[in-house]
Amino acid sequence: MSWALRPKGYGQPFYGDEDGFSIKMYHNGELRGNYYVNGSVDWFDYCDKNTMLMTDIDGMVKELRYKDIINYWYSIPGGYFDGGLVKLSEDAYVLDMLISVLDTRLVNIFLEHVLACSQEQFCSQVASNIFINFDDDFGTNTGVMIEELVDNYGAIVPIGGGVSQVGEVKKQVL
Q: Does pTM top 0.85 for this prediction?
């Protein structure tokens, strides 16, 4: 593991000529149109573009103590998809994400907590039949965070009541 959760109150490290970057992870909220609301932000530093895989992102999510079904979305500030979200679901998408990361040294990742079974229960990430009571495991949300996502290229965000119609993004090489 080359990445580390940034302690509260610390700034972004200087990476110099290294292949390092930081991830700004939005979690415990929800995507609504071009906004991520009612969430929190944590930073992961010392990520390495040469070794980053989906298992690393899964590990970061576990570090934040999430076990439920979660969709990952990313954007790179100032990059080709700035403001638009791209679904992150396999290593090939991680590699696509890492192509532009050295310009900004930052990737924004948004966690979309997928409701399963009922409003108060989530199925676990490993698709077992274990259920997690949302209120007991995560508590009541006391903070509010709203950040507007620029509407470049049209953010790929589920609108309405579900996520079943979300498609994959086809990227063009310029």
A: no
